[in-house]
């Protein structure tokens, strides 16, 4: 039996050269967020309040969403027309011109009749929930073959998407008055709550 201490001693683990830099970066980000935690908290509270208001008045929130998308389509379409005209010698000029013109027309249509646009957005929302639900369920079942746990939540998320689509469809035509605004409000509320939690964690890290 060998008594050589070099043979019996465990091999020392070399230090990770990236660990000090990672800790330094995390500390810098934490200090930066801690210094501005009040602004982050104010943003979270604002989003939370807007989300609650949207949930309470989903029709108004839906119309506001349609108007926002209308202006977004209009500005992007006009910008696309300008850039496409400046590069009219490039391949695909007419297709790019057509795409920008369609964006302008879609923006004008939403701005001229936001309630009608809200009806169209509801059908887009239904299609999204159906497609996303089916894809998410298939993803969860695929993960079941390779992962021991966690896939149930993925499947559950897809089932929830299909349930939401069924609820909106069952409420037509009246659901177009509240579906978009309600879901936008829920999204804003959850985003605001998460930002508030980040702000409170940054305050705690700054005071530590």
Q: Determine the N-to-C terminus distance.
A: 53 Å
**What integer is the average pLDDT?**
77
Shape: globular
User: How many strand units?
Assistant: 0
Largest sheet: none
Tell me the domain tally: 1
Task: Give the ordered list of helices and strands.
Answer: HHHHHHHH
**By helix and strand content, what is the structural category?**
mainly alpha
Q: Kindly state the percentage of residues in helix.
A: over 70%
Strand content: under 5%
Low-confidence stretches: 15-26
**Helix segment count?**
8
Radius of gyration: 26 Å
Transmembrane segments: 39-60, 66-85, 92-112, 118-141, 153-172, 178-202
Protein name: HdeD family acid-resistance protein
Keywords: Membrane, Transmembrane, Transmembrane helix
Pfam families: DUF308
How would you characterize this protein structure?
The chain is mainly alpha-helical and 208 residues long. It has one domain (44-207). It has helices at 5-8, 19-35, 37-56, 58-86, 93-112, 114-144, 151-170, 179-207. The longest helix is centred in the middle third of the chain and has 31 residues, at 114-144. The radius of gyration is 26 Å and the shape is globular.
């Amino acid at each position: 039996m060998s008594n050589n201490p070099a043979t019996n001693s465990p091999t020392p683990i070399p230090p990770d050269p990236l660990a000090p830099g990672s800790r330094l970066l995390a500390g810098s980000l934490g200090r930066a967020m801690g210094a501005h935690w009040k602004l982050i908290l104010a943003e979270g509270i604002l989003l939370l309040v807007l989300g609650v208001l949207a949930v309470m008045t989903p029709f108004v929130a839906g119309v506001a969403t349609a108007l926002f998308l209308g202006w977004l389509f209009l500005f992007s379409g006009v910008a696309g027309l300008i850039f496409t005209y400046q590069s009219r010698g490039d391949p695909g000029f007419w297709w790019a011109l057509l795409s920008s013109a369609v964006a302008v027309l879609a923006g004008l249509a939403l701005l001229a009749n936001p309630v009608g646009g809200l009806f169209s957005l509801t059908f887009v929302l239904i299609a999204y929930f159906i497609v996303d639900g089916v894809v998410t369920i298939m993803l969860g079942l695929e993960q079941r073959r390779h992962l021991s746990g966690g896939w149930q939540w993925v499947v559950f998320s897809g089932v929830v998407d299909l349930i939401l689509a069924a609820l909106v469809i069952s409420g037509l035509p009246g659901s177009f008055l509240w579906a978009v605004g309600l879901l936008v409000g829920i999204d804003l509320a959850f985003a605001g709550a998460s930002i508030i939690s980040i702000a409170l964690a940054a305050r705690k890290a700054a005071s530590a």
